[in-house]
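Help: read this over?
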Amino acid sequence: MKLKKKLVDEMCQWVAENGLMDYGGASLKEFLENFVIDQKTYYNWLKKSEFSDALEKAKQVYLDSLERRIVSSLGRAAMGGEWEEVRQEFREGEDGKPHPVRMTKTKKKIEPNVGAAVFLLTNRFPERWQNKQVADVKVRTDETRLTHKQMLDEIQENRRLYEGRIGEILQEEAQRDGSETDSGQGGE
């Protein structure tokens, strides 16, 4: 079988939709069966840049699509939600065609998934959402010995600084939450 541009385009379209061996995509066997070629032919074609480059681009299209679907799915899991599931039962009629007999509607609900929310926010927006604590620590570099009272005073000062920083963070979050709530009210 000869490698033609039309065939390469068809193969790349298939790989863009189904993937190929990477990231949960289709297996090489499925690809070969779909295009009725053998492994030897496939690997010979891979040596040609017009085929291998086009295939890599198609794999990237699949990977980008996969990423969008995963992020969307994580977002839905993080927020939870409700939807209506509709099931329809069919029976074969006298004319041999299927005819609807019964329709069942069921309300489904998924609770918000905090783990999905944390994962999504900390990975997609790390500059705004960090899954770590930041502690400012002062270290004495001089070799003078401190008295017991001086140590207690420094501990108190560090505690005051730490509690002040926690207060600032909480205040920033409250302001951010307030501004998001204000902007989401639509002028009411």
